[in-house]
Amino acid sequence: MNASEFTTVLRSVEGHIRYYNEQGSGKQRALAKLLVEFQERARDFYGWSAFKISRPVDGVEHDLVNDSRQSAFHEGGSRAIELTVHERDPAARKACIQHYGVRCQVCDFDFEKTYGALGQGFIHVHHRIDLASVQTSRDVNPIEDLIPVCPNCHAMLHSERPAMAVEALKIIFESQKPTK
What we know:
HNH_nuc, 6 helices, endonuclease activity, two-stranded antiparallel ribbon, 41% helix, HNH, 2 domains, nucleic acid binding, HNH domain-containing protein
């Protein structure tokens, strides 16, 4: 795995932590522990700052598998971390889904169509304005402020800070479709 792929993985984990924070499910703590561990590994291995994981400092990509400096991998240790969780209103999520449905509003992915009953009703709900950027609670309009997106598109939206506009990501997505 090269540095670019490693960065992509870390960004994906960050996106999933944001999603679980939205759900209030408590799973974000386990993911956050993994993220911290991998950020520290990135810092140690690539010389990156733990908070600037977007690219290696020296601009050189390293191969994790073939690099002789990495002779063993260690897992299973634990450490305590503290998180700030932004409250979400489940009724706002429900109202958003009632309005838009459960198809991704960027790529049109439908979990139920692909996975059957297992995927029924599954979708992430994205806040058009990052909750982390607002210091106090605020009123949310479920139709104007929230939008259903699949986990992949959700991670792509949060690949920028502040989050990319849904419409901008849709343009990128549409531009990548093969022409017939």
